[in-house]
Amino acid sequence: MACLLSKISFIRKIHRFFFRLYLEKKRKLNIVKTLWFNISFLPWRQAKHFPFFIHGSLTVAREGGALLLDIPDSELKPGLIRLGYDYDRFSTNYAGTLLQLSGTIRWKGPFRSSVNVVIGASKPESFLEFGRYVSLGAQGSIRAYRSIVIEDYVAITHDCCIYDTDFHPFRNIRTGNINPYAIPVKIGQGSFISSGSYIAKGTVLPHIR
User: What's the CA gap between 16 and 20, in Å, rounded?
Assistant: First the structure.
């Protein structure tokens, strides 16, 4: 009897696995990219849980950067972090995801980004951190040249840009001083960033309880 129950339990697990795989395929899950990304960028103890799901296309521009998961192994599960997942339906352009990895990008919990987005730590010294339950809407762009920290429970809607840089230094022609081209950005817990917003260098949004 125990053997029969064990077999039934195993068959149910297999059935659930393939049924979920079928559903994810309908959501444009890119199985090949998902396997490649997890195995290539994570240590095996994390990769075996397949925490990253890649939907649609993904381009990784890597120049020696690091991708970190600051999540206990006991909390890791398939699809905890989804890239290119069209959850908001605000774009007809399915250009996929561009991930720039020259610096360090760290995830601390569940995350999802929609289609046609750019996520980047664009310099070797740059740092980008996502807290728990952060979402990035369609056609959004986040690029860190120094430091961008996004705390827990932050919703970034479609067509938003978050940059900690002007991309070019500017010189004051009267004083001769050159303004710093990059100043850290911090997005406090519970922030809601409305569509079309532009978050510039030096921005600090308060922590909302």
Answer: 6
Q: Judge whether 117 and 158 are in contact, CB under 8 Å.
A: no
Burial 114-137 (b: 16+ CB within 10 A, else e): bbbbbbbbbbeebbbbbbbebbbb
Q: Quote the pTM value.
A: 0.84
Beta strand residue intervals within the chain, DSSP E: 52-54, 58-62, 66-69, 81-83, 97-101, 104-107, 111-113, 117-121, 127-130, 134-136, 141-144, 147-150, 155-156, 161-163, 170-171, 178-179, 185-187, 192-193, 198-199, 204-205
Distance CA 67, CA 155 (A): 22
Digit-by-digit pLDDT tens for the chain (209 residues) are 566 556 566 667 665 655 566 556 555 788 889 999 999 999 999 999 999 999 988 999 888 889 999 999 999 998 999 999 988 888 767 778 999 999 999 999 999 999 999 999 999 999 999 999 999 999 999 999 999 999 999 999 999 999 999 888 788 888 888 888 899 999 999 999 999 999 999 999 998 77
